[in-house]
Amino acid sequence: MTDWRKYLEPCYRPRYMLSTSVVFAVLVFTWYGIRPSGRPLATVPTSAQSTRARCSGVNGANNAMASTLWALGQPVPWPRLTEQKRKELTMVRESERFTAEEREIMGHMCGTPVFLRRRQPVVILASVPGSGNFWTRYLIEQLTGVFTGSIYTEPVKKTRMGGGNWRNASVAAVKAHSLILGIDIVYDGVILLLRDPFDSVKAEFSRDATGDHRKEATVDMFSSKAEMFAAKVDMLGSRFEKLVTFWMGVSQGRPVHVMFFEDLKVKLKEELLKLAAFLNVEVSDQRLQCVLQNSRGVNKRQHSEVYSAHNPYNREQTIKLNRYISAGARILPRIASYVRPVPKRDTDVKRADSALFADD
Question: Out of 61, 92, 125, 136, which could bridge 173 as a Cys pair, Cβ 3.0 to 4.6 Å?
Answer without folding.
Answer: 125
